[in-house]
């Protein structure tokens, strides 16, 4: 792809016309220019704003929000998600891409960068998917964005291997279903990420990805799939909220999972499970008359 010195002026409008939600990113950074950038993933792009900003800051980069994808003006195509592979070893990055293609299916939307083996694979989901930290990168979801066109902080320009949000439409991105996505999250050692800030804490143990989904675990955790939940041996529901999984069943002994005791309201403070020493044996004083 040809590299432009004025990516916002040249690419933002085609990106919007192809069904994506462009985000203004300061030139040569990964930082959105405006603090409320994440509204771009929920609303429709404003053509007038895109044109006006192109006259003021034409060299700004074009980010894309992981939000709603659109076909015609009245047709929603699902939600954009990205598999961000952060491996710096070329062989490992290629292997991780092959695993993603095996579990999720191939995609022709692959963002690359000269001089780096890191890459970003685009897919779409019928449901919202929250950001998840992986052992070798991130799953980009709700309230996340990525730079699609512009200059990386190291000076190189982002590019696309085949299809891009300028040359192809959002409808051309492969549509996933929850089953393969859960299998992929399990294989990649998913860790909940800080979706609001866009920077989740790195896991303590960065393990290599097994060639197939292992029956054992990743790091010190024993990962298992139970219905539409993933548990890690500590009764953590890792995909609850990520894939819209239902709440756990009541703790009636029929499930291997133990639910936490209900929180108690004590003096306006929620305390979990037990009454504090100070409040034990005390009666709450009656409310003062008005």
What does it look like?
The protein has 290 residues and is α+β, with helices and mostly antiparallel strands. It has a domain of 177 residues. 16% of the residues lie in helices and 24% in strands. Strands 3, 4, 5, 6, 7, 8, 10 and 11 form an eight-stranded antiparallel β-sheet that branches. Helix 3 packs antiparallel against helix 4. The longest helix has 15 residues. The C terminus is likely disordered.
Query: What is the averaged pLDDT score?
Result: 76
Number of helices: 4
Radius of gyration, Cα only, in angstroms? 22 Å
Poorly predicted regions: 194-280, 283-290
Describe the global form: globular
Order of helices and strands: HEHEEEHEEEEEEHEEEEEEE
| Strand element count | 17
The level of helicity is 10-25%
Give the helix/strand class.
alpha+beta
| Alpha carbon gap, first and last residue | 72 Å
Could you give a short account of the major beta sheet? 8 strands, antiparallel
Strand content: 15-25%
């Amino acid at each position: 792809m040809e590299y432009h010195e004025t990516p916002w002026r040249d690419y933002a409008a085609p990106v919007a016309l192809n069904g994506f939600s462009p985000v203004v990113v300061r030139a040569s950074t990964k930082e959105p220019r405006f603090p409320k950038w994440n509204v771009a993933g929920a609303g429709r792009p404003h053509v007038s704003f895109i044109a006006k900003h192109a006259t003021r800051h034409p060299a700004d980069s074009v980010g894309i929000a992981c939000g709603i994808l659109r076909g015609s003006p009245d047709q929603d195509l699902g939600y954009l998600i990205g598999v961000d592979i952060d491996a710096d070893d070329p062989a490992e990055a290629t292997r991780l891409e092959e695993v993603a293609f095996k579990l999720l299916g191939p995609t022709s939307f692959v963002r690359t960068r000269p001089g780096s083996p890191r890459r970003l694979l685009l897919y779409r989901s019928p449901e919202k998917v929250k950001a998840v930290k992986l052992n070798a990168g991130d799953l980009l979801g709700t309230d996340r964005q990525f730079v699609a066109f512009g200059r990386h902080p190291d000076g190189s320009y982002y590019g696309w291997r085949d299809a891009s949000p300028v040359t192809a439409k959002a409808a051309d991105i492969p549509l996933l279903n929850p089953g393969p996505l859960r299998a992929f999250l399990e294989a990649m050692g998913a860790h909940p990420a800080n979706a609001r800030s866009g920077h989740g804490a790195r896991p303590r143990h960065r393990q290599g990805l097994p060639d197939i989904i292992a029956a054992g675990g990743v790091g010190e955790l024993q990962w298992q799939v139970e219905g539409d939940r993933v548990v890690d041996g500590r009764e953590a529901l890792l995909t609850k909220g990520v894939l819209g999984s239902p709440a756990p069943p009541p703790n009636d002994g029929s499930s291997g999972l133990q639910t936490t005791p209900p929180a108690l309201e004590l003096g306006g403070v929620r305390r979990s499970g037990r009454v504090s020493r100070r409040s034990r044996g005390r009666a709450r004083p009656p409310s003062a008359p008005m």
